[in-house]
Structure formats: structure tokens, C-alpha cells
Amino acid sequence: MMSDANYLSVVFNSTIRMMTPILYVALGSALCNRVFIFNIGLEGTMLTGAFAAIVANYYTGSILVSLLAAMISAMLVSWVAGIFMVKFKGAMLVVGVSINMLMAGLTTFLMQTIFGVKGAYVSTDLVSLPKVDVSFLGRWPVLQTMFSSLTYLDLFAFVLAILLYFFLFKTVTGFHMRSVGINKTAATSLGINADRLQIGTIAFSGIGACLLTMGGVTMFAQNITAGRGFIAMAAATLGAAHPLGVVVGSGFFGFAQSMANMLQNSAISSQLTMALPYLATILALAIYNFTQHRR
Amino acid sequence: MRNQSDDVLLRMDGIVKCYGDLVANDNVDLHLNAGEILAVIGENGAGKTTLMKILYGLEQPESGTIWLKGEKIRVRDTAHAIANGIGMVQQHFMLFDPFTVTENIVYGKEPRRGLFFDIDGANRMVSDLSERYELPVNPVARIKGMPVGLRQRVEILKVLYQNAEIIIFDEPTAVLTPQEVNELLKTMRQLASNGKSIIIVTHKLNEVMGVADRVMVMRNGKLIADLPVRDTSIEELSFMMVGRRLIESAIPEIPPGKKVLEIENLCLNGTGSVPILDRVSLHVAANEIVGIAGVSGNGQFELVQTILGLIEADSGKIQVGGQDIFNHPVRSVRDSGVAMIPEDRFIWGSAAQAMVVETAIMGHYRKQEFSKKNFLQIKKIRSFASKIVKEFNVKADSILQKTGSLSGGNAQKLIVAREMTQQTPLLVACEPTRGIDIGAINFIHDRLIEKRSEGAAVLLVSSELSEILKLSDRIYVIYNGRINGEFLRGKVNEEELGLRMVGSIKNELQ
User: Fold this and answer.
1) H or E element: which one contains B170?
2) Which of B77, B99, B117 lies closest to A172 in CB terms?
3) Which range is least confidently modeled, A258-262, B43-47, B245-249?
4) Is B492 within a domain?
5) How far is B95 from chain A (nearest CA, A)?
6) I need a labelling partner for A181 at 20 to 30 A (CA). Which of A29, B82, B249, B449 fits?
7) ipTM of the complex
């Protein structure tokens, strides 16, 4: 009995840790969807943030500077993507794919020039985010396991979802954002600067895309995101671009990811278990679209 | 009389606006007095909409000045226009369907409480406004599913909420039922008596005569006349607008021939709780124009799409010339002798990116005259396109230009030309004259009548009642997916049709 509870709490803990990087990006993606932007460049943005964090970490050893570097660089890349999508009316898919390819190449190249390594860079000199101290939960070992080795950023993801919910549905700016997504022409004709709102949203959506390397992982590898930017987009769609729905959507993928990790130790071939999050993505989107279509 | 004064509130002097080589506004002057209703009339492309866009900040003039209350202003954008008390009720409503009435009205000028949108306060303000101007609305209702008249009321309230003193109405009656039109004209008079100044852009002359104090006529970008309504007549205005006399051709009486289109008990359930089409039975005979009158959204377009095979119906019978076409694919329906002028020229009727010559044969390119062994007969197609462009007076620089670069009226003429030139026993015409000018409307009407005289059956769907009444030998009223009355020519007036269209009179039989 106890071991079952223990097992579940481990799964829960790992789900949380797996889902938060997705959740940050998914929230950004949801905001983009709300202003009628399909920002496929989030994968590349995520890579940018992850890389910038490691570089800043390497040079300064400061968590705060790394975090800021990641946020600013990811935002800049997103902002450029936004300019191309909105101002120059570039096809969103093309701009997004370009960002992804550019960043995949650029980060790999810069990794070699800066760290002089190929493939992956790991160093014990890198500082990682401090973990939330849960020793006060010592009396409840299950709870302690559930919330152990989480960072404040992990917890903040959930707070951010709630904040964004209020922002989108209760503030005037959020109201304008939703209106731009519904009918941009009307919004423009009513004196709203829809272009600026869209570009701003895209830029903002980049901020969250930086946390991958900050939490559990203090390393950078070629293509470290491994499609998680795309998974985040799927999570945003599944959550109907509603901040709280996105939490559920990200949780689903976090769970799939953590199951994949757990099953690596089992008898099932690891090639199969590694594919689990991606299979879950396809399946979930197919089911979601099917139910939407039937409605 | 209204408390109309001679104080000039707004003056536009020597406005010039060019689009490339086209001079849309050629040195146009306009003035508007406080509390006055000014009608700006002209054919499509006469420049009246351009002039209003300049006033509302949607376009910038090449030259010319705008004076508001004696002060020179430059309207940079719509926000600036609104700030100056200029509001516009656009032809295409600028509403957000999923939002509520209040959210739409206060949009852009939302009351706030702290960080948040004060929705309760907004609701109260909208209620007050709605009472003050006697324009009843439910502030918390969502726009989605609202009838057009009500949507327009929301638009008017929006302009009033923005404290507009000058209200521009762009073709406001194009989509309304006769009752809604009367209601709107009443509202306009009331607004004027409350001190608002109103500009209506329209090409419907009886409305001008009914509501306006003064009328400005525009033609080819120029101001032709500016005169008080009481000093003019519909005949004079239409002559000035078009630049020639319009001859209303009498419709020759021809007895209907044998039935071409027969529909029996057609049902389309759709996804809602109410069926979209409910046991619709009708027929159209050779030498006959049959009109379907209805407020849009009552199933008429689904009816047409079902006939064409674009939507699969649930049950019923559809025959063309005795041949069953129920739920047949579009191609076989068209091959059985059906041509269609679709309701929306750029969604269903043409591809904006296609060349005029391509649009001219769209849907008919498989015919022998246009293709042989899968190869297009370019020469023949071009000469055909040139021919119909000329015959139907489509104003195009070249048959190789993009369809999307034609004006709406000319694109419509091109589609009408295409569908009429194909010698089909049945022509389904959906809103054949929507948004085009009087001259072109008359031209298309004459072609429809000609088509009928040649022995074709014509099914005419139109939200323009005058068009239905003028052309139809027989009229069906459609309401909530049901046929709500059938009348022969001359046996019904506009009022009764209007009441049946909104279901105030129901068919006893059902």
C-alpha cells in the first residue's frame, strides 16, 4: 500500500518537473493563439533561451543573470519573428520554421565556438536553480516526495497560469487581445493597434520559452528541446488556449514524458518508450480535433 | 421641422484622392450643419465611400482640408476621428460575435475599476444609453445569432457611446427588412432631433426622400449636385446619379411552361435543435422567374446549396427537367442543366487570384468548346472571355488582370455573365445585384428577364424585396426553413411580405 502511494507520488513529482517547461511555452503559445498567431517558432525560441541561459551561467555563475539573459534573448528572437509575421505579413509557418532552423544551427555553432565542444556541454561549474525546501513536510513523506526537488520557477508556472487567466478575461488589454483574435479588421477599425498587440504577444510568448535549462538540467546539448516546443503548442491547443486548460494539457504531456522516463528501466524497448510523449501528442490532437469536428 | 440650424459643423474643402491613375475624389466639397441629415448618393465607384473613409480617417487625401467647428483638423486615423466626435456605422458590421452587446459597445473605451475591466459599470452605462435614445437592447446578450437589425442597433449605440456628434451611415439599409428599414429611418430622425448630425451614404433614393434634409450627388469622383431634398425628385436624382435616363423595361407576360425545377419535402436537419430546411416544396417552370424572399439566415442559402449539391440534405426530392439530382455531386448537378450565380462573389463565385479570363470559364472549362483532350483551348477561351466582358460591360483593363482587382460590381457582372452565357434550362441567382450600382442592377435585371423570355427557369434568391417584387412571376416567402406563403405577381405588397419574412404572419397550412 505504502509503496503504491510512494510510486504515485514519484510519478506526480516527475510529471510536475516534466510539465513546467512545457507549461511556460504552452502559455505563450496560448496567448499567441488568442491573437490569431500560430507561432511555430516557439521551438527555436525555446532553444535560444536554453542556450543563452547556459552561456550566461558559464560566464557569470549567477542564476539571476542567466534567467534574465534567457528571457531577453528569447523575447528578442520572438519579437523579430513577430515583426516578420505581422508587419511584413510573412507566412507564419515559413517564419516559424525559419526561426527553428536558424536557432538549431546557430546554437550548435555557438556552442562549438564558446565551449569548444560538440554535441553537448556539461560542466559542474554551472550553478542550478535552488530547490524549494520541503523539509517542513517531513511528517508526510508522500507529500514530501511529491514536492521534492522542485524549483520556485516550477511553482511559479502555476501562479503564472492563474495570473494570465485574470489578465486575459478580466483586464481591458486581455479583452483587446481576445478581440484581435476574433476579428482583427474590426479591432483595427475601432482604433486598436492590432499589429502592436500581436507583435507584443509574440514577443511576450518568448519569455517563457527559456526555462528548460534552468531547472533540473544544467547542460546544453544540440537540439536539447527535442520537439518540446511543438508539444507545448499541442498542449495550448488541447487546453483551448485557456490558461487553466493549458495547465491540464501540459500536465497530460508532462505525465506522458515522465512515464516515458520511468518505463526506460522496464523491459519495454527504450526506443518505444522514448516515443511515448510524441505518440501521446498525435493521439491527443487527433482525438481533440475529432471531437471538435463532430460538434 | 427639426431644430436644424445653419451652423456649419463640418466642412470638407477640395478633397482629392487618387488610387493610382483613378481619381476617386476630384476636388469634392462637403458641408454639414448641426442637426442635419445629409444623404450622399452615387453609383458604386462614384467616390462616396472614399469621401467617408477620408472623413473617418481610414484614408488620407492627396489634398484638401477638413474643418470641424471652424477649426482645421487632419483626421489621422479612426481613433482620431472618434476623438473628434465623428462616428461611423459601417456597412459590414464591426462586431465581435462571441462578445456581449455591452462588450461590443464599450470596446476601445472601456470603463475600468483598478486593474480590471469594470463590466458591471459598462452594463449600466449601456442600459442608460439604450434608454436615453430609445434603442432597446439586452446588454448581456451575445451578438452571435442576433438578427441584422439588432446588430445594427448595437453599432449605432457604439457610435453614441463614443459621443459622436457626426454619425456616418454607410449603406445602412442594404441588409434590412422593410420593417427594420422603417425603424432605422425613425431612429435617424430621432437622433437628428437630439442634435446629432447624420450623413447617410446610399443609393436607395426612396430612403433619401424619406429621411434626408439635403442630398449630395456624386458621379465619377465629382460632386454633381448639392441640393435640399424638397427641391428634387427621385427621377431627377437618379438621372444625376447615373448620367442618363434609366428605362425600366416592362416585363412581358409569358405563361409559364413546363416545370423545370421541382423540389418536394426537402429537409435539412443541420446541427441545431431546429431544422434548417423543413419540408420545403417548390417548383420553377420554364419562362418563369420565381423569387424567394426572406431575411438572410432563414435557410434560403442552404436551400440553394442543397440544390447545387454543396450540402447533403437529409430527405426529400429534387428534380431538374424530370431528372433526379437529389444529393448528386455538384458536377453532375451542373451537367444536368443548372447554372448558379452564388451569393458571395469572392467566396463562391470566383477566385480573387485568378485572371478574369479564368473566372470567365470557371466551372465550365470541361465543356468541349473550352477544352479538348484535357488541354485548354486558350485562344477560344480568350475570345469567349473578351466577348462576355464586352457584352456585360465589365470594366476591366485586360482579361489577364486578377479578378480580385476588379471592383465588386464588375466582378459580379463577370460572374453573372459567365453563368448566363451557359445555355442552361435552370438558373439559380443568389443576390445577383448585391452591392452594385443602379445602372448595373438594371442591366442585370434586364438580362434575367431576357433569360426568362428565352425559356429558362430562374430561381431568384434576394434579400432585396424590391428586386423580388419587380422580377418575380411568383414569390415564395421562406421563414425559419419553411415556406411561409406563395404569391403570384401583383398579388402581394411589400408590407405583407415583410411580415411573413419575420414570421409575424404564419402560413395557416403549417
Assistant:
1) strand B166-170
2) B117
3) B245-249
4) yes
5) 7
6) B82
7) 0.82
